[in-house]
Design brief:
The protein is an alpha+beta fold. It has three domains: 96 residues, Thrombin, subunit H, CATH 2.40.10; 155 residues, no CATH class; 147 residues, no CATH class. It has 16 helices and 17 strands. The strands form three sheets. It has a six-stranded antiparallel barrel with strand order 1-2-3-6-5-4. Helix 7 packs parallel to helix 14. The radius of gyration is 28 Å and the shape is globular. The mean pLDDT is 87.
Amino acid sequence: MDSFEYIGLWWLPEKPDRKMTGTLSFTVQNGLRLEIMGALEDIFARLESGKLSKYDVIYGITQKGKFVTVTNCRSYGQSLNVPGISTEAFFCDIAYITHGHFLVNPEAAKFPAILVDFTYLINWTGLNVLREEWIRQESEFIGSKLELRAVEPRRFELDAATLSIGINFGTDSTSKRHRTYKQSSYIKIESPVPLTLEDWLSQYIRPLQDLITLATDHSNAITALSVHANTKDLRRFEGDQKPLDEELRAEIFFRPPFQQDQTVQNIDEHEMLFHLRDVEANLATYLNSWLRTYKSPANGETSNLNKLRAAFSLYFNTRYHPGPYLEFNFLPLAQALEVYQTVRGEKQTDLPDEDFKRQKHEALENVPEQLRSWLDMRLTNNPPLLGRLLELYDLSKDVMAQIVPNGNSFCVKIKDTRNYYTHYSDDKRGKAAQGEEFYYLFEAVSYMLIRLFLAEFGLPSDKCIEIFAKNARFKFIAGEAITKL
């Protein structure tokens, strides 16, 4: 999301006659801040109460004619100067920026469509409206030809929405000497049942951000976001009698959970795990499978969906926010493997239930009565961690055997390393991975999770093998790890 600073007039929806000059600024690092010259309401009464201001909605019109609706504005500083000009500053959660309209109730508003762009989406799609051709005459370069061509969006019909992947194009010319051409990608999702912004973010935007991060093998941030708003959720400036637009596009700005340097570099296809064309033929099916993983279970449904989302969160949080210490990046991945196995693994108990009950009963009968309560709480039928890991290795062996052919020793090393960095017991330190071995263990565990997540995406084994075989980084890690682990 691009930074901005807008000077304008600002007021409360219920007090349109009390407009104050101020500045709204935005950066992905600091979010939205609104600084007002004056006060949006009687400042003396508020100062007497000793409370800072908090407003659900503030409206504004900028110097360049943009209409702004900002939400959940919380005062973090105010001054009363007599004589002089009073000031107040606010942190705000979300800004909706449109032309000619405000949102009536942004928190409750439901939008029929949303558009989003991510850091490396344009690299992943491979879509391009610009084609440059060098012109040569007798092997001598004499010029170039720039061709602009329309690119039709790719449309995919999903279970509950229609998803389009396309590209936008723009040009800027400040003089006869300089012209800038810019293209950007987008994903547009249209739902027959309008959704709140919160629902759009949780049901579609976050899953797609994780998917593009997985596909490109690079962390992706939201770089642009907008919604289509319905007439019933809009209002014009007071006194403006023109009819409301039937559907209006509103740009959205907020401080995203993951921020990224705006000067990121392009990535080449060989750096990605897979490209759009690798999965385009069956993308609708794959997307339905992926989105179901993020769906919140309804009342009475299994909690497996919550566990899958937890496993995804543990992995992707490490991708988006890697720490400086390898052990604290490794532990969430080990935990993600454990959680994933509780959902997809067949072995959920150490012994058959009847055998466990019988053996537990016999054990409790053969200890002194005063120890039975203590022992009863410690006898569980959960499968050991090593058994869980071995089952996951078998599920991902088509890919993991290229990195660690010996699955048993690999899983033992994961177990020992996880146990040491969880409990820091001296007797476990010698078995835990250290130094260079630890780095390659971390990478191998990451690839095992990626392979398992591709199964959730719906890719068959042969497609996974093909995808990993083309990835330069995987081939490098496999070549090194096979001698280190």
